[in-house]
Structures are given as C-alpha cells and as structure tokens.
Design a protein that fits this description.
This protein is mainly α. The chain has 2 domains: about 1-65; about 70-123. It has helices at about 1-30, 35-45, 55-65, 65-75, 80-120.
Length: about 120
Amino acid sequence: MRTFVKSTLQVLIFIIISYVMNRIADTLHVSIPGSILGLGLVFVLLQTKVIKLEWLDLGAKWLLAEMLLFFIPPAAGMIQYKALLLNSGFRIVLVVVISTVLVMVCAGLVAEWIAKPKENKPS
C-alpha cells in the first residue's frame, strides 16, 4: 500500500510539472511543448541534485511500464480516417517505420557517444 501511494504521488509530481510547464510555454509562446520543457527541467534538477532520483523513481518506472496504454486511444482514433488509411496507408506506415528506425539509430549513436568518454577514463 505504501509503495502504491508513493508511486501515485510521484506520478502526480510529473503531471504537475507537465501542467506548469505547458502553461509557461503557452504564456511565453514557446513552440516547444511544455511536457518536453518539463522533462528538461527534471533533468536539470536531477543533475544539480536539487531533487533526488528516489523522489521520482517509482513514478517514472510505472509511467515507462504503462507507456503502451497512452498510445492505444490515438491508435483507436485512426479508425475514423478509413478513407485516408485506404488511400495513403502504405505511405503512412512507411513514414512511421523510417522515422522509428531513424530515432532508434540516433538514440543509439548518442548513447554510444555519451558512454565513450566513460569507457576511456582510467579507473
């Protein structure tokens, strides 16, 4: 029960950060979504040790574990666009596959680039 309450509060922290950063992005007319700005803010706060990883760990793990659930409604909503899918379905799938591969390759290259200095450091 205690873990459930703790993870729920941590998810609530993420929701609040996202909401606040969305409002700030809207107010300042920034073209970057507030949720992305919030991610950057959380990263900076973690790196500067203003907040501890333990304060967000369980909530982040739950959000990552249940991420697929956040994509089901948009996928189900595509049913409304049957004509578009019939006419351009192959092109849409092609763009999705190519962009997915591109993101995976870029993420892998960045991860290797970040990990390389750590491997070269003498212990």
